[in-house]
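hey team, just a heads up i'm posting the complex here instead of the shared drive bc the drive is being weird again. everything in one block, sequence lines first with there labels, then the predicted structure for the whole assembly after. its two chains so it's a bit long, scroll down
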Amino acid sequence: MKLIEFGLWVFMLAAFLGFELIRRVSPLLHTPLMSLTNAISAISVVGAILITGEQDAPLLSRVLGFIAVFAAITNLVSGYLITDRIIKMFKKREPEKK
Amino acid sequence: MDAVLPALYILAAAGFILALKWMSSPGTARRGVMAGEAGMLLAIIGTLLRYEVVNYEWIVIAFSLGSAVGVPLAYLTPMTAVPQRTAFSHAFGAIASALIGTAEYYRHTPQGFTMGALMVETLLGFLTFTASLMAFGKLQELLPTRPITYRGQNIVNLSLLGLAVVIGVALVISPEQTWMFSIFMTLSLVFGLLLIIPIGGADMPTVIALLNSYAGRVADVTTKLHPRRTGNRREP
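-- predicted structure starts here --
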């Protein structure tokens, strides 16, 4: 199977998977869901690391990669930490509910 | 080692899927965050261990600086300002993707399908960057929150986007024309800015959700590009 064809299969399945996963999220959790997906989108750090860490990368790509790693890590760290903070608040507020 | 690294990526993807699944109900939401964190950790470890990553100094510095900004951003933001923070952090994610695309373009000047994917990535990355900053400004009330409209706004915006797409297609056809790439970047940045101007502050959360999906698309393209590029080189 060609690589592009394979990629399109993954893309199609992932689209349905994503939709099914968030379809039943309770409206209460929409805010943390948004910051969680925001944090997960920082997966682009993978690409940034590859560019920055290359052996013979010219200065331009090294600098661009550096800024990209910095930005993605900021997004990642703050995204996960604040999601956690929001979730903790839910627990404190309604401990007797469960 | 080469067999272990793909496994780390697959586990990372599973972690993200579980993160979203567990986020559906308050009881399991905490576990969801942990699954997401574990997934991200695996992906980063898997990348750092790759044989083509040899220069760690810049990466370590960027990691420390990013955490130095990210941690206070997460803990000092008042709970009422969470939507703004998401928008702001989103701008960071978007610029990261856009810069990856830019670096990749100047370094390797890819051809054909890869170049097309790279153009989509860069366009969405840059426009999401300025659009997210605008959304942040409006939510934080640094900018006027009322919608700003003028005559012919849609025509201006659409022609800007149209022009960016035309240049993008031209670059896919002849990727060596580097001068067009700067124009393409500028157009994407300006389009993101103009896109948010006519939208009122109250609609911003919806806009952020939409921008979020753009960045997701971008991340998808980015990560698809890289393993393939390096993979091709490894196996002649």
